[in-house]
Amino acid sequence: MTAAEPRGTGLETALWRAVAVYRGLALGYAAVVIAMNHGGYAHPFGGWAVLAVMAGWTGYASFAFGPAAFASTGRARRGRPLLAADLAVAAGCVLATAWVEASGNIAAGRPTLPVSWVAAAVLSWAVAGGRRAGVAAAAVLAAANLMVHAVAGTSGGIGGTTFNGIVLLFLAGLVVGHVVRLAREAEARLARAVELEAATRERERLARRIHDSVLQVLAMVQRRGGELGGEAAELGRLAGEQEAALRALVGAGPAVPPADASGAGTDLRPLLAGHASTSVTVSTPATEVRLPAHAAGEVEAAVAAALDNVRRHCGEGARAWVLLEDGEGEVTVSVRDDGPGVPPGRLDRAAADGRLGVAQSIRGRIADLGGTVSIVSGEGDGTEVEMTVPRARV
């Protein structure tokens, strides 16, 4: 299953098909039990009527929960109304036992009319909603089993068969729901691994082409510009910066989609690595630093604004360092340069004069994310802009 496929076309289809198979097999078992016991029923034809309802619902549910219905109507077809109807039919068939079956047989521990067929409803809820949904469905059917004994007026309480059946329902809901959740997580990780592998192959192909053409031309321009001097030297310097940035981009690792299937967000490292050049050094952790896509974009834009200030105010020979730190509950990005520094009060005067580059491009963006910005500078000591964004607010 790829990221572009709707959820429900791979693993989920197989799960619903397995539930349909179980429902059909359990229907056959219920038919055998009813055929064997109908002679002792208080209302024998009632047993066949319940079996007919079960058969009809089995056919409809196999279609409604199946891949054909999903393809035509989407996941909403398997939503709460259908799941509620499935559970209601199962509970109704259990409750019908109190009318069809003789009280003495119920007291003796004879199983309910649908026997294990009702577990299909628990499995459906577990597949659709996980452990909690599966356990909730099991609780409804357990209550229906207890009501059968209450209506029949059995004085000895529930028998061992009924108790075991209730326990198995809860176990089915709990275990199947847990396994389904693990399987979906594994499928999401597999899909992501496939995407990363494809992205890596594409990056390697592009890297070979770029190395054979663009990088070699930029390196030649840098070398010849330095030899010629004058305006050509400046052109060579710019070519060298672009070569370094392009090499960093090519070697930064596989392209990562903005958000993976589990909604983990965007890795901030590749965004910041794109600003690396001969005059800008970018340092990031070895592991992913993920933020929501919007927050990651705003942080990257604030870093770009800080580097733009370095280029405009610190001169051609100034260097800058970008450091990304992944703390517990927060992400910190600092931009430091070796320029002349900012004189005291200059930022306040710039804001008063209407020049809002730092106030809006940096402080404003980070403040909107619930973060803080600290600017430390002194004349001749360079400037450091530290931006901290708490994860809880992004």
Automatic annotation (TrEMBL):
Name of the protein described by the UniProt record: Signal transduction histidine kinase
Keyword Transmembrane listed: yes
Metal-binding is among the record's keywords: no
Keywords: Kinase, Membrane, Transferase, Transmembrane, Transmembrane helix, Two-component regulatory system
GO MF annotation terms: kinase activity
GO biological process, one term: phosphorelay signal transduction system
Segments crossing the lipid bilayer: 20-39, 45-70, 82-100, 112-128, 135-152, 158-180
Domain Histidine kinase/HSP90-like ATPase: 301-392
Organism for this UniProt entry: Actinomadura coerulea
InterPro entries: DUF5931, HATPase_C_sf, HATPase_dom, Sensor_HK_TwoCompSys
Domain DUF5931 residue range list: 10-191
Pfam families for the chain: DUF5931 (PF19354), HATPase_c (PF02518)
